[in-house]
Amino acid sequence: MQMHLNTLTHADGARTARKRVGRGIGSGLGKTCGRGHKGSFARSGKGKIKAKFEGGQMPLVKRLPKVGFRSKLKLDCAEVLSYQLEKLEAGEIDFAALRAAKLVPNSAKRAKIVMKGELTKKFVLKGVAATAGAKAAIEAAGGSVQE
Q: Is 145 helix (H, G, I), strand (E, B) or coil?
């Protein structure tokens, strides 16, 4: 059997006729148009329900207890690891010097030195907080911390 362009058709089920709703009882989609009786899905423009909606019942998100404390100050503070200070020249280090060295983002208003790695240079920290471990490491290298 030979195939001709004028005999080509779509595969079975590839093209389906659209639903013609509200065109009488004989169509099977008359009167309520397949939406059932009443309820939010029967109304126009009301078919979507938000993900957290539970039919008017208090949602689970609101029922669960809120635990812990989230400090807003934490967002303003940037952490600087102690081994990153090795990139800077020995001497006085303040917040402006850390920002100039791109160790602190522009969004930060404060900085704190956290102990990680080793320090060999002598630093004098001014106006920058430091953890107990970082403070001990700076002082062991011959520096000091002035908050």
A: strand
